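Re: the pair you flagged

First of the two:
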Amino acid sequence: MADKSDQAKVILESVANWKFPPFSEESGIDKVVAFGDSSHKCPVYVQALPPCTVGCPAGNDIRAWLTIVQLSELKGLTRAESFELAWHEASKTTPFPAVCGRVCPYPCETTCNRSEKEDGAVNIHAFERWLGDYGIEQGLKHRKLPQAIQDKKVAVIGAGPAGLSCAFQLARHGYPVTVFESFAEAGGMLRYGIPAYKLPRRVLDAEIAAIREMGIEIICNTIIGKDLGLDELKEKFDALFIGIGAHGEIKLGLEGEEADNVISGVSFLNRIHSGRKVTVGNKVVIIGGGDSSISAARVARRLGSEVTILYRRSRAEMPAIKQEIKAALAEDIEIQFLVSPVAIEVRDGKAVSVECRKMELGEPDESGRSRPIPIAGSIFREQCTTLIPAIGQRPQWRDVKRYVDDTSQLKPNKDMAVDDGVYTGGDTLSLRLVTTAIGEGRKAAERMIAQMESEKRPIQEVVPIVGPEKMRLDYYAKKERNRGSCLPENKRLIGGLDLELDTGMSKEQFLAEADRCMSCGLCFECRQCLIFCPQKAIVEYPQNSIGEVMYTKYNKCVGCHICAQACPCGFIRMGMGDVL
């Protein structure tokens, strides 16, 4: 915290020339004299959205997690009580804190107001991981909402992050849910697309087990459109959610890609994560610049191969998660930018090389990225023992194809429905982040519940977002970001596919990171308003109806604005005109 005398100087200098109106102890707010030509404004308490929550595709109340831990002593909680309370707060919007704390590229951190200070954003993803791991270690159980058991049944197609998130939220509300999964185990791309060195299977299994314990039935090895029909499910269940993911490959369209040693990125990762033996030889060439191409490359590297990625644009346009690109380069994976394959050389039924052409960037195409243009006379060959095209993937529609539009995608309405009682989310809409799929699963569940209960969904009120311009950043002391730890680069390949690279943060770092949260947009009981109010109009009042402990006696307030200027987190605004 900055020096109190400096704070007082800043606050009081800003109102030094103000003329205070006559004040009467008995007068109410309607009797207070106005300042000059402006109407009298008294403080209003406005809970605003912190930018971290706005930046989180899952809609997690990250501020609540952090401040529960930060204020545990003030609230009379033990550390263990605050950890458990924060974990349950997280489970309101996600059943996967330990998973997302490992695989999410944390867009929430790019919006953190603390980034405006020199010490950097709060380390939200490492905090979430620690919290999720604590829940696993302590065997914490998710809670159902206090209500009667529902008599309507729901089917979920696909046990990936979107489907399991939807099933989880429905189960929280008391609905019986059955999940149908085509693969042998639940998890979807979490299990069959993300390598174990990034997401250990014990972590994934533990969080799926906690979801099952909500009473959710998961039936694996069942393909809708083959083993069961979609119409059959519609007859048996009151609502359906389609979250089948995108496990189908996209072809290069080149002659020779049917060779035995040409395998798509999605199929390669599926085989590896299903425990099947895959022989790649000593020179793997991967085509593509997305997350699957990077994961395939890092897996192949751990199988002992030399690996080269060919990508037709520059690094700036590469859609893969930036941290993953950096990690791949650190593992001696070569990435050749501005290179595109044009032919595959096949001998004796196997691909032995890829004929490539160098490219240059032109004007943006329909994706918004610069269009790659071939450079004349730039053909060369890249030798390979295995060729892995990873240029994209798509859902395998089967019975769901009836809802697919002419762009080969599902296009739900504003309620996330593609038909009466049929909802969707996740990679069936577009390939995005795991946390996006989790958020869409939750939102679909909320809309399903409203439909099944014939409830009109409330109009979402506009909640102000608190940016740095609404805060007093000088109040918050500089506190260096806690970064956790990773295995050194020279040891990352030693443990093969199962050695987790990111070892996370310690309990001490977890607590220190909670203390870095600035509680943007919500009172955290700093008492600055109480300290600096010259009229002593602000008191502590724990029974305040808005749930905070600061309270204004409006018959004492003269509208001097000092409390709003003293509030560091942007919770106090002067009059309703300043709220939004």
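Second of the two:
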Amino acid sequence: MRFDYVIVGGGSAGCVLANRLSADPALTVCLLEAGPADNSPLIHIPAGVLGIVPTRHVNWAYETVPQPGLSGRRGYQPRGRTLGGSSSINAMIYVRGHRADYDDWAALGNDGWAYADVLPYFIRSEDQARGADKFHGVGGELTVSDLVEPVPASRAFVDSARRQGIVENRDFNGASQEGAGLYQVTQRMGRRCSSAVAFLRPASGRPNLVVLTHSRAEAVVVSDGRAAGVQARVRGRTETIEATREVVLCAGSFGSPQLLLLSGIGPIDELERHSLPTRHELPGVGSGLVDHVDLALCYRSPSRDLFGITVRAGLKGMKGLWEFYRHGRGMLTTNFAEAGAFIRSRAGLDRPDLQLHFVNGLVDDHARNLHYGYGMSCHVCVLRPKSRGSVRLASRDPSAAPLIDPNFLADDDDVQELLAGVKVARNIMDSDPLVTHRDGEMYTGEARSDDEIVDWMRRRGDTIYHPVGTCRMGVDDMAVVDPQLRVRGLERLRVVDASVMPTLIGGNTNAPTIMIAEKAADLILAA
């Protein structure tokens, strides 16, 4: 099997690249995906995320190593294991981050990655239901729309935030990010518009594109200082898939560094620890992991408009299923995290450092702990944490999960920012009109002093699913890829996914990952 380009990982970035590279009929492209095709109805029904995130259904369902900052607990790290990757299992929120985040990338020496440089790539992908303007595009593959039927409590959250002096913002991706509002989502006619739906399906009939599912890459084949292909387990058989132009890793912030290490590319001490031959010393591989640490405040509620676990809710869900398949409407079109806010923990900051996600149901331990009745949740996350962790190998077995260490709440500044965010979130949840939609605060309700709240943060905090930075882009010695996303010191090998982000952007990471792939396609085709 020989192709011009071999792409490892059919997720948010890989599907974009498969589309853009195969658009030239003279090029041959192979896309490898370890998981199955995205045929599960739970993927395409937005509310089906409740059956995916807490389970191993099309989900790697990783755990972290024990986290000292989280009272020694193991965190949970769901990641998509299907075509579309995590865009097939996420909450579909379309957020690009703050414009200054990208200017920060450029200031670190990453020429071509300032906000003015990347905005055209966001616009290129977008099919904005509200229409085009200087921040948004129409006619792109990725549908971005307003929620079909947000619940009244989500609107009440925005109104309560206004009562707390937080401005209302109808477009977090426009002129200003700050404020509270309803999120826009990657949905098309009430259905999930994943990267696979948006980019891969339109390209699937091209004879020059081969998509291999149930095909797990085990190593990059390196010869004479260049990537020559990929060794993969393809439906139970070991195959070598040759790449005559480039190998592109799109396996995500956990998968891409793991594959580089398994290929003998990384820090020597880590390779020697597993008796792996050193093909290329690159000390930054797997370092610099950073993720949005988050605390969910949970509340019971008397409101029957929210999601709940009761007999009545079950009957309502059956009606919702009919509405969904018949009209693309109804309760099953929810992304759960319907509203939110970007706020500052203190005066003097140049941009918001906290994000809130208001959820129209009880989200306890990533929905793995279910409660009878109705409720709501408010997530609080630190947007630019200082704590840094790593991804390492558990063993040289490619099928073994990597060792994931986000090192949550190791830096006291992260603790203080999250504490400030919890206080703001409580004020919103205690304000009219939202307060009429909820009963008492679960778990953390008795915590009032700072020490008591911090104790709960450590006992209940975890990820909001935005790991980046493990194959960081840059020009320093610890950078893994250069600003053209080429692996430093090797030819014909790039990394294109969230792992290349030099700093964590202030917001959800799916839209930026798609942008990175759009820009990477131009870089690759211009090479």
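Residues 348 and 417 are 14 Å apart (CA to CA).

-B.
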